[in-house]
Amino acid sequence: MVPKNQAALEPVRTLDAAAVIGTYVSLGTGLAQRGQIIVIVSTFDGDVWLSLDGVTDHILIPQGLLPLTLDVSANKNESNHLSFGIGTQFYVKDVAGAAPTAGNIAISVLYAKR
Q1: Phi/psi zone of residue 79: left (φ > 0), alpha (ψ -120 to 50 degrees), beta?
Q2: CATH number of 6-74+82-113: 3.90.550, 1.20.120, 3.40.50, 2.60.120?
Q3: Of 10, 55, 94, 107, which is most buried by a Cβ count within 10 Å?
């Protein structure tokens, strides 16, 4: 029997250090599917902010971050399930004008393929 939902991944979104400035820049395109697990890996040599609206500082990503997993689907079922909505856009900017000079940031998005 094939499960009703199967896990699938969107193409990875990446941004190199050279693109990080003092204002928010988009990290790839908006989500094409409802993201349930987001994995963020940074190899930057400096700290950056991650934003979901391009204005507000939401998550501080310290340099050399080991994978950070945002799992909004843990311990949920169909009736109380959470996800990052279709079209959600991720943005990155430097912290206090100290832009990273090397490395990149990558975001992987897992979703339920129906």
Answers
A1: alpha
A2: 2.60.120
A3: 107
